[in-house]
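Table 4 source record.
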Amino acid sequence: MMRTLIKTLIFAFALILTLIVVQMGRQALAASEVERAWGATVVQRAPNLGTTKSLTIVPLVDEAASRPDLQFEHGVAYLIKTDRHTVLMDLGWNNGATPLRHNMESLAVPPTDIEALAFSHVHPDHVGGFNWWVKDTFALGAEQTDLHGLPVYTPAPLTYPGLTAILTAQPTVMTEAIATTGGIAFAEVFPLSLWRTVRTEQAVAVNVEGKGIVLILGCGHPTLERIVARAQAAFDAPVVGVVGGLHYEDKSPQVVSASIAYVKTLQPQLVALSPHDSTSANIQAFRDAFPTSYQNVEVGRPITLRP
């Protein structure tokens, strides 16, 4: 009996060790694939982007709320408003509830105001939940409702009843002054890497008149430097703002300091980090580094950049 137990434990240990080695190998191959994709991509410029005089970004889902009547969760959804257009980026997690719908109603944001939907990347906390993610689809709430032909821009294939999503491998203009950077490859994070080792993420870029490009990010998996480099290659305006997720939840003070130094080279007029994927200490480091341009990211609190 004891000998059988020992053999079982040895077998289980060997199996676990083998799986770890295999996964490490898959991750190494993924990293190589990401580097090849980055080096091989020829970015198509988007010269006819146009401009907006004003920009307002309203977090509809994030991990902090500005008022007690608004719901928050581990997810992201940002309403992006310019002089003439309104675009929604991402849909949050909606895990066991519908914070996106609740917050839209509380903030008087009717779905009919939304002219286009963009996904930063295809993760459960950005497409409306795990149950939709595993089906390569999305939802604004507990059910998939009729979106009346809403244009959907995604860096990876997604389906939806009655819609044909627009795949954005390259920078793509969605409306006047609002575009996507196009998808940038990144090595998938564990445990989602058990499904797929490489995914793509894009940012939404808004061109503010007399200022430049403000980037709205979901998580910044490809790194902030690469997302900014993509925007610089795609648009005829400097990057002057960074808003959203940057995945500084597990980064050391040294890494955060290096990122802050990089952002300073942009001479930003707007910096706002999401608590969705960054620790309060790392957010505070950015707040301290950019005292005149930093704005908080909270559900219902408008983030603005005006002439």
